[in-house]
Amino acid sequence: MPSQAIKPTSLGMTGIRNNDTWTDGLPICKLSGVGMSANQMYREDGTPCSEHEYEDRSIHFCLDHENGTYLYGVFDGHDGAKAAYFASQRMPAELSFEQLTGKTTEEEVKEVFRDAFLAVENAFLESIDPKIAERTQLLDKIPDGMSQFEAAQNFPETVNRLQVLDQDIRGGTTAVVALIHGGMLYVGNVGDSRALLCKKDRLGVLKVKQLTADHTTSSHDEVQRLVSLNLSASKIQGAKFGNHELTRCIGNYFMKGGYKEFDILSSATAEPVIAEPHITSMPIDESCSFLLLMSDGLYKSYQDSTGSEQVNKEIAQMVVEQFVEQPTLTSVAQTVVDKVVRLHHDNYLTKQRNVTSRDDISLIIRNFNFPLRCALTSSSALLGGSSPRPLIRHPPRPRQQEYSSSSSSSDDLTLREDSDILSGLPGSHMLPGSRGHRLDFLESMSNSVDDHGPIHHTDTNTTSTESSELQNPSLTQFSLDEDGRIHPYCKL
User: Fold this and answer.
1) Cβ atoms within 10 Å of 340's Cβ, excluding its own
2) I want to staple 35 with a disulfide (CB 3.0 to 4.6 A). Which of 72, 322, 334, 473 is the partner?
3) Of the ranges 30-34, 65-69, 77-81, which one carries the lowest mean pLDDT score?
4) Residue 392 in contact with residue 368, Cβ under 8 Å?
């Protein structure tokens, strides 16, 4: 933890001079890159314009370089950006000030990680307590049974203030957070932002696994959880709570403390919308290639544009393609975002699909050992006699261990062995050093997990995992030395 970091207060997350945020004292993780794009709605002539303020926030910090502790997160706000901003500032505080010190077992770290989500939730709700109290006092000034129209006529100032307060109280955010600590990867989420991990099996095949659970009213597991609280499945399935379908989030007071005010939720025996995270953990080893964290704006915009039922796999394809073409992780992430943005806009212009607007988009890429273009070029320079430049440094090697899963199944979505991984995407390429082989997908359907063992999930509900597989024969040549670097694969 850097000494210059300043712990935020519980009230405003500010108290920092010159309007800086306390996280400005945290070092950015150089093993990651971020891409983003603001929301757009399309005018009749195709001109895009923002529908609302940019509500996504993201973090990618190195909390402790010596011990290999890193933190990444995407927060997709709704009804304003305040909750997403608050969470992006508070989450690092809940994991940066010795909370992880002495926590060596997987269960201990998971408990700290879970507590961090709940602490962010509680701190945010505490920050809006004065507004909730003011709202209650103002409501007492309006006679019971008076219609909204009559109240606006008789108490205009009170109604105007109530509208402002309602907007502030209503705000909430999803959260998908990845913590690397002690050679382990922990991913927690509430809402529908996603984390995808690409990792190789023993044959060099990259498998794309969704490590998060989508917490929406379209999720069978979440509907069953709500039914257990005395809510009607027929009313809940696919329903919207306000202007979204989230069944878990940080903030959004009206769907929590004020849920009795909504007919669809009023019969619940406990708060139906919660901040309890779904947590996944697994060791980091040489098989881990890269991690993707994304807001729903990315995968939903792609799905709306293509109608694809294999969104995770095809987004991973785009990332792999850009690893070959781009020199930095930020350019990889931003190019993937830009491609989805352009695809969505083109669909509006050509009227191929009924798209009229899209949400904010955020994408974080955390690389483990997948080679970038600059790294490939550096290795190729060996042919000219120059010394190789080391590739991205790996976190400390984890202890070898088995790990188990509480998931009911793991679906591996694949294509035929002879199909091109970049098929259907612009600009197909072959990786340098692949000796003429295409980067391929293999197709199989299985309830088993990859050769390294299953991924361990922590949640009160059964979750499902969407998986995909990518193959690059040349990747099987890579191995790490004792310092965590990849040996050069070009031979003299």
Assistant:
1) 28
2) 334
3) 65-69
4) yes
